[in-house]
Amino acid sequence: MGKKSKIAALREVSPLSEDDRFSYTESFRTLRTNLMFGLVQREKKRFLVTSALPSEGKTATAFNLSVVFAQTGVKVLLVDADMRNPKVHRYIKQKNDKGLSAVLSGTLDVSSAVTATEYENLWVLKAGQLPPNPAELLEGKYAERTFAEMQEKFDYVIFDTPPVNLVSDALSIAKKSTAILFVVREGVSTHEELKKSLRAIEQADLDFLGIVLNDSKAEKSSRYYKRKYSYKYGYGYGYGYGYSPKKDKNRGEIDEVSRKDA
Ligand SMILES: Nc1ncnc2c1ncn2[C@@H]1O[C@H](COP(=O)(O)OP(=O)(O)OP(=O)(O)O)[C@@H](O)[C@H]1O
Ligand SMILES: [Mg+2]
Asked: Residues 165, 84: contact at Cβ < 8 Å?
């Protein structure tokens, strides 16, 4: 059996026509290209996907990006670092049996905890048994070693994380030389919450890779979309590349970001 290459999240948000699938996949490929350029300058080839609040598309984005990264032939590890509400195992149709929580507790090493997937070059470290103290585990004595082992064994490490305005987990991961990819979902995310997140990221002096606009209306209302899809589905992705909250404090605007890649 050949390995599958299609974007798995589509199965979760079906029904989609073939044309929609193509457009959705293409937007992730464009995003991949931009991110790979962004990561070239960084010593550690890893980033986390987060957003201000729940249900903005963090897991869908992290998963689909992992798939398209792996399609280029590099070895990718997707880590489910949402040890509060883990979802990555569902995308690969597995049980959330062992994973990150065991590794961070020192009972398993990364190599024995990761699981292969149906996608060539893509491995997943599931969240594992839900710990009572995810934030402490991420700051704990096995954390550095865990991150080093992940990077040693894989070309790219991508983390799915919980919402940054609710818990500190994503920021703890970012403190370990992990760049931040921030998801904003049009029609759901608010400017207020986005500003709150960006402020926290700026104050902690973390590495900000960019903003992804999920469910982009700009994409849907483009002439191409109007003609072909009649606004039926909203799977557009925009990407604000290289945005730094430090350099320009006025640029935390969702509208500006959406225009960038539309
Ligand atoms: N662009 C999109 N179009 C349609 N549905 C989407 C889109 N992005 C995400 N979804 C759907 O929205 C729901 C929430 O997405 P997802 O689980 O990725 O969000 P999340 O930010 O990871 O949420 P949580 O904070 O609970 O982990 C899922 O059912 C997902 O399939
Ligand atoms: Mg999630």
From this structure: no
**Token duo for residue 50:** 């987060």
Å from CA of 188 to ligand 2 middle: 15
Question: Two tokens at 199?
Answer: 């402020």
- Residue 178 C-alpha to ligand 1 middle, in angstroms? 22
- Give the whole-angstrom CA distance, residue 54 versus residue 223: 31
For residue 177, pLDDT over 50 is answered with yes
Q: From the CA of 66, how far away is ligand 1's center (Å)?
A: 16
Ligand 1: atom nearest CA of 160 is: 22
For the chain, which residues make up each domain, given as ranges? 9-260
Residue of 21, 59, 219 to mutate, ligand 1, most atoms within 8 A of C-beta: 59
What would the pLDDT profile of 93-120 be if each residue is shown by its tens digit? Answer: 999 999 999 999 999 999 999 999 999 9
Phi, psi of 56 (to 5 degrees): -95, -5
**CATH classification code of 9-260:** 3.40.50.300
The proportion of the chain whose per-residue pLDDT surpasses 90, expressed as a percent, equals: 70
Ligand 1 binding pocket includes 196 (Cβ within 6 Å)? no
Instruction: Provide the whole-model pTM.
Output: 0.84
For residue 72, which amino acid is it? T
